User: Fold this.
Amino acid sequence: MSAVQLEVKDVMLRFGGVTALQDVSFEVEKSSVHAIIGPNGAGKTSMLNAISGVYRPQKGRIIFEGQDITHRSPYARTSIGIARTFQNIALFKGMTVLDNLLIGRHTHQHSGILKGGLYYGWGEKEEVAQRVVVEDIVDFLEIQHIRKKIVGTLAYGLQKRVELARALALEPKILLLDEPMAGMNTDEKEDMARFIIDTNEDRGTTVVMIEHDMAVVMGICSRVVVLNFGLKIGDGTPEQVQRNPHVQKAYLGQEDSEAVET
Assistant:
């Protein structure tokens, strides 16, 4: 059995009188593809924000590779191997694809201002090293043809791919994806699913993703957590979750007595 890489323990998150997450617990195994699903407003993005450090829960703990990171800053979490993409694209749209990816390398740059200013020395060596990593990601995600284009001029589906590329530039141990296929057509979804699988299998990166397309979730995820109104109502393999009467009720509006396992 794979080792547990991420533990969410009894996390509660409130905004005034609104409870976004209520005592949610689950585990993510290393090198798995894990999904968080649920109806709109279920608390899915709030959960990713708690894991990445954007929000700090009022109760509970988040443990990454044995370390309690509940009170660490987003930057500190990035530096230990947690990267994410956002539901709304968060790229520097006036910059090129390559420049966006190089910005994603910031946690791996060590030359500092003084050494970096001496370009023909430490600065030059470090830039060459960072570009090698970036060009590898460009090849991996098949975006060679847009590498020098301004991000804001690209089609939406390509911008989503560039955002994935920038997250991978951090060389994460675990990758948090917030609706990576939202707004995409069928071909773009197939490409993104393939890149997520390759990221997991070829690079050994753990993936935790929010996704509404159930065909994608059932096809590429090994485990699924289901949230509804901030509560966890399901946790298991895709097949187990699909048969869960509480999940059926949340998605289909069935009464408990009508929810039949298939």
